[in-house]
């Protein structure tokens, strides 16, 4: 089957769009994520004979091209191993999701690559396999195999990773939601953001948190925006991590005043995301974010987008 | 409004059935509960002039009749205070849910009473008010105000208590489920079962737990029995509390072998509950439970029931 798939893929080439993602979704640390319609990376893949990965970066981020040091590279090397080293890949990457911004840049690089490669091979791997391969990229990027960006990037929408071992990925139906993001141009390393978390927490705080994640899932599945709003509360991670993000409390307060349902740190930051029920609120939230960040003097970038329900998209 | 309600209620009497409940539902410690069609308490209420509670027990449990020492009493005393002491209640209680069995006996006593009294008064209180009043009973019974038995007892079905302060109760739609219960005739005091829990837990265990509760809510709302089954896992409370329940591990293992979707300790025990997709599995689980407990030499009682979707029912 592998040989046939490789034969059929000879001479072909496909381009995919791999979306940014918001991990954690406030109360779902390490288990929830959602895919964004913007930004996305563009990747074009084709086979090569040698069982390795040749990477061409056509953006300005100067990421490593040695496959072992590149998140796309390690994910594809894992796929190549599973293909018994019978082929290799040549991939051209235009990153549009800024590395380190907190909206799943590394996940898009690894997830986009394995989905593109799988498409080239006639989809011989299942989504769960692709998630497993792409997690090698997350391991390289942050030291930990986690799927809360990978899974929504691949399958789209709001995604629950109930368990990593064994892998158990669940799509959570969601009503339409607008997402407003502010990305302050500072660096927060995922590894650092992980290390400042306490390894022990209070049971009573954990109870509050699992009440909220249960409320959020119920709210999304009932299209109950008020319940979604009430459930977007994080008593455990946000109080610790938000100290790494300038003006976090003010951005959050002003965004809620402007009509956001709620929000918080996107992944491990520094981006902050807010969910809104409609476009007008989402743009009012963007204005509020801009007002706060303009005062800080820190460079920043804001955008308004919606939930990507499809995941990585093959465009040609 | 209060005066009018009291006037209209003079000379009337109502009887209610207040159902047993399963709190926690394995991965939803302190926040999830479900109502059972069996067993239930039977309570008949009427007004009296003096602002107090007169309790008639017509069962064999010899519970206190002084209202301040009785869970029904304290819940109704709270309602009387909110009625500006303009009336009192006479209530006759036939408890069929054995106190201390772990299926919400105290919650049925307090929740049934306030629902019955409210019905008598033309439903002047909202469900949230009734939950607040009934929680005085839970405080008396276990030292802690919790609503994970009260809320499902009052509104029926599977219920999420996202938050106690402020009170936020959410109905979680569920597919049909059969519930098999074994009640070993030993005493586990709720207070003791609470005290053996660790106040500090590992973040990684909490993450596993909130992945499971999110999975359980999604599974119930999607009618995905396999997902429900996978999510019925408790890495935090069960390992500690199950040591108080003889043969717990064996009951669980044999129940799963017999076809249960999953289950665990009902509330703080000693009852063990198992959920099944169909009646045949539920009775096979009952057999398995009986086999295990017969060997232990401990007296026990088993029953098979279904989810009560209505909550406390006014029968006449």
List low-pLDDT spans of chain A. none
Q: Kindly provide the name of the CATH class of the largest domain in chain A.
A: Alpha Beta
Element order of chain A: H for helix, E for strand:
HEEEHEHHHEEEHEHHHHEEHEE
Biggest interface: A-B, 40 and 40 residues
Give me the Rg of chain A, rounded.
19 Å
Instruction: Work out the number of β strands of chain A.
Output: 12
Please name the CATH architecture of the largest domain in chain A: 2-Layer Sandwich
Summing up helix and strand content along with how strands pair, one would put the structural category of chain A as alpha+beta
**Coarse shape of chain A:** globular
- Approximate helicity band of chain A: 25-40%
Distance between the termini of chain A: 24 Å
Per the CATH scheme, the topology name of the largest domain in chain A is Ribosomal Protein S5, domain 2
For this structure, the quaternary state is homodimer
How much of the sequence lies in strands of chain A comes to: 25-35%
């Amino acid at each position: 089957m592998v040989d046939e798939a490789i034969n059929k893929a000879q001479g072909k080439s496909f381009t995919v769009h791999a979306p940014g993602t918001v991990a954690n979704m406030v109360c779902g640390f390490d288990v929830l994520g959602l895919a964004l319609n913007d930004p996305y990376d563009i990747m074009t893949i084709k086979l090569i004979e040698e069982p390795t990965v040749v990477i061409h970066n056509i953006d300005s981020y100067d990421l490593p091209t040695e496959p072992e040091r590149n998140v796309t590279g390690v994910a594809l090397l894992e796929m190549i191993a599973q293909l018994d080293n019978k082929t290799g890949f040549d991939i051209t990457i235009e990153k549009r999701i800024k590395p380190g911004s907190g909206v799943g840049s590394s996940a898009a690089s690894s997830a986009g690559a394995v989905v593109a490669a799988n498409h080239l091979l006639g989809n011989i791997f299942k989504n769960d396999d692709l998630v497993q391969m792409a997690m090698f990229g997350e391991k390289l990027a942050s030291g930990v195999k986690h799927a809360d960006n990978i899974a929504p990037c691949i399958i789209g929408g709001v995604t629950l990773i109930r368990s990593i071992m064994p892998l158990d990925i669940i799509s959570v139906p969601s009503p339409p939601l607008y997402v407003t993001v502010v990305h302050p141009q500072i660096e927060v390393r995922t590894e650092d953001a992980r290390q400042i978390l306490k390894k022990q927490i209070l049971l009573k705080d954990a109870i509050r948190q699992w009440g909220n994640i249960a409320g959020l899932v119920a709210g999304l599945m009932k299209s109950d925006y008020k319940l979604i709003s009430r459930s977007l509360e994080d008593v455990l991670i946000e109080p610790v991590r938000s100290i790494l993000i300038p003006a976090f409390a003010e951005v959050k307060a002003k965004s809620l005043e402007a009509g956001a349902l709620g929000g918080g740190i996107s992944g491990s930051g520094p981006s902050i995301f807010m969910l809104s029920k409609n476009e007008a609120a989402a743009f009012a939230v963007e204005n509020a974010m801009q007002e706060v960040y303009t005062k800080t003097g820190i460079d920043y970038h804001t955008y308004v987008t919606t939930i990507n329900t499809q995941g990585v998209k093959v465009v040609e």
